[in-house]
Amino acid sequence: MAHFDVFNGDADGICALHQLRLAAPMPAKLITGPKHDVSLLARANARHGDSITVLDISLDANRTALNSLLERGVRVEYFDHHFAGTIPTHGGLIAHIDTSPDVCTSILVDRHLSGRHHLWAIAAAFGDNLVAPAHVLAQSAGLSAGQTQQLRSLGEALNYNGYGRTEADLLIAPDKLYEALRPYSNAFEFIAAEPLVPTLTEEREADLARARQCLPHVVLQCGALHVLPDAAWSWRVQGAFANELANAAPKLAHAVLVCDAAGGYAAARQTR
After folding, report:
1. 272 pLDDT higher than 50
2. Helix or strand run (H / E) with residue 127
3. For residues 234 and 253, what is the distance between their CA atoms, to the nearest angstrom?
4. Read out DSSP for 26-41?
5. Overall pTM surpassing 0.85 (yes/no)
6. What are the distances in angstroms from CA 209 to CA 205, 221, 226?
């Protein structure tokens, strides 16, 4: 029997899977992709008796594939915080879904594991821009301000790497990034040992600097519209830039658009 791990390629999906496999190692076929690629479950060619763990992709966006897998006798365990719609009632499905605004998938996994690998959940929460919940988790873990900042930088770097039109825009493929994390149970050891971390952090800061040089396209009393050029750096930094704008002015609306090759615009994110 085969097992598949299907996960979003951002900080939340990667850290959620990492926590689970630290607690329960098992061989698995990895299925992931850039953050926007949320219809991943259809790529799992599982058969009767196989099992799948799904992390950080919307059940509603994968409903057809999920129902097909369940009908084929595949066992599915689903962790997610996005809109799910009606959750199927099926003996082969175990769903851990909570759409509350103060949770991410890694926090759900952290609760499921009773905090066994807490540091990765904190990093993921920062990466998902859940700054206040992440600080609460860090304080409850007794972390210093310096340690908390290290996890924040890690989460933001991991999340930054997940954005792109295609995997070619990313600095490292999500499955390769996950494989780099796998030997480390302690997030601080990963930060100290892996050159990937400063590389991603430096590239993120460089892309943010480019985005800041692009003046707002439209400024309104209630917020602003930013338009970035059609370039790999724009697609990489869209999420980080939107988060920066939202954190700096949380009471305003912020839209970040990226020009696409067809002459239109892709909405990066809109937050309030």
Report:
1. no
2. helix 118-127
3. 20
4. ---EEE---TT----G
5. yes
6. 6, 25, 14
Burial of residue 75 (number of CB atoms within 10 Å: 0-12, 13-18, 19+): buried
The predicted model gives 248-271 an average pLDDT of 78
Query: What whole-number percentage of the chain has pLDDT above 90?
Result: 82
Pairing of strands 265-271, 253-259: antiparallel
Give strand ranges (E) for the chain. 3-7, 29-31, 51-55, 75-80, 93-97, 218-220, 223-228, 253-259, 265-271
As a whole number of angstroms, the distance between CA 27 and CA 184 comes to 17
Do 131 and 247 meet the contact criterion of CB atoms below 8 Å apart? yes
Give strand ranges (E) for 86-201.
Answer: 93-97
Assigned token pair, 41:
């479950």
Six token digits for residue 217: 């396209």
Place of tokens 């966006």: 61
Please answer whether residues 117 and 87 qualify as being in contact, where contact means their C-beta atoms are separated by less than 8 angstroms.
Answer: no
